[in-house]
From TrEMBL:
Family: Belongs to the aldose epimerase family.
Binding site for beta-D-galactose: H194, S195, Y196, D252
Coiled coil: none
E.C. numbers: 5.1.3.3
Subunit structure: Monomer.
SUPFAM superfamilies per the UniProt record, alphabetical: Galactose mutarotase-like
Catalytic activity: alpha-D-glucose = beta-D-glucose
Name of the protein in question: Aldose 1-epimerase
Pathway named in the protein's UniProt entry: Carbohydrate metabolism; hexose metabolism
Keywords associated with the record: Calcium, Carbohydrate metabolism, Isomerase
One example GO MF annotation: carbohydrate binding
Matching Pfam families: Aldose_epim
Length: 350
């Protein structure tokens, strides 16, 4: 079965990446900036499959985890804990307590796909659907744009929501990610990009990298990582990354931001730094990527619990159920905008 994406365009470099279980063709497209930074994105989940950063005149390093074909991406959603490698995530990234959302005098019961809770948009989410390739630019600051419209009341989200994501490579070696969304009815929304980064190389471990977070507090949660509504000071806590520290081996925590600069990651091995900027109120930090020895990563890599670190720039988890959390309701006729910038640079030390 062919889909709209089988119409190749002269505006991007595209190749067949595989087929979904429903026999839909999946393509990947690659763009490069003038410095040799290279980005590859899949139609399936509007997923970043590769991000190569020049580290010398003769070599580059692929800094995101991924798979070699569409079939493996689709299969990864059946793993004991789906990793969402590189995907666009929504309609609501993160957890919603018991899948219940209350607004406008209504009580909405979303799908519960993490025990009794809702996470990352449910079982049929933005990450495992084939998006429509919309456009590309190949000149200065090249870009790729994808769009997806959810079916009416999909997963019990009210109405239909149209999401567009643009990935742009800036000439100063930054990746800019921009989400736009509109909805036919008032609906909860929280979109994010779920790449697992490893500046040592996608087939390495996070050990040896250094991390700094620009946040004063993080969200208190229960044992199921559902926010209590309280904020915990970073200083002196187990999550104190206010100064450069070793990359954590285990973390699944939402940090509250008060400025556009959210985080800095540094690899002494490759002398490569990444700064994360966003217009979102939080960044959720997660270390993982485990594929449970069931699926090989790209280039036959074995991804494990320490393979990569996510910087999920977003609103707060469970925000619709806490009045003092930032608004997470997209109203009919209004526009949602999420912008995140991943800035890369060579440096010998922080």
């Amino acid at each position: 079965m062919k889909n709209e994406n089988s119409q190749l365009t002269s505006h991007s470099i595209a190749r067949l990446f595989g087929f979904t279980q429903k026999e839909k063709e999946v393509y990947v497209r690659t763009i490069r900036n003038q410095n040799g930074m290279e980005l590859t994105v899949s139609d399936l989940g509007a997923t970043i499959t590769s991000l190569k950063i020049p580290v010398s005149d003769y070599s580059n390093v692929d800094v995101v985890l991924g798979f070699d074909n569409a079939e493996d991406y689709e299969a990864s959603f059946s793993l004991p804990s789906p990793p969402f490698l590189g995907a666009a995530v929504g309609l609501y990234a993160g957890r919603i307590n018991k899948g219940i959302v209350k607004f406008n005098g209504r009580v909405i019961q979303l799908e519960t796909n993490l025990g009794m809770h809702h996470i990352h948009g449910g079982n049929r989410n933005l990450s495992n659907q084939v998006w429509r390739f919309k456009s590309a630019t190949l000149d200065e600051n090249p870009s790729l744009t994808y769009t997806f419209t959810t079916p009416e009341n999909h997963g019990n989200y009210p109405g239909s929501t149209t999401v567009t994501v643009t990935y742009q490579l800036l000439e100063n070696n930054a990746l800019k990610v921009t989400f736009h969304a509109t909805a036919t009815e008032d609906t909860p929304i929280n979109l994010t990009q779920h790449s697992y980064f490893n500046l040592n190389g996608h087939d390495q471990a996070v050990e040896g990298m250094q991390l700094k977070l620009y946040a004063d507090t993080f969200l208190d949660t229960d044992y199921e990582l559902i926010p209590s509504g309280k904020f915990i000071p970073v200083k002196g806590s187990i999550h104190d990354y206010s100064s450069i520290a070793e990359c954590p081996k285990s973390i699944d925590t939402t940090f509250v931001l008060n400025q556009p600069l959210a985080a800095t990651l540094f690899s002494p091995k490759n002398q490569l730094r990444m700064d994360v900027f966003t217009n979102q109120p939080a960044v959720h930090i997660y270390v993982g990527g485990n594929c449970f020895n069931q699926i090989k990563g790209k280039e036959q890599s074995n991804y494990h619990p320490l393979s990569g670190i996510c910087f999920e720039t977003q609103n707060f988890p469970d925000a619709p159920n806490h009045k003092h959390f930032p608004n997470a309701l997209l109203k009919k006729g209004e526009a949602y905008l999420q912008e995140t910038l991943f800035q890369f640079k060579k440096t010998t030390a922080l």
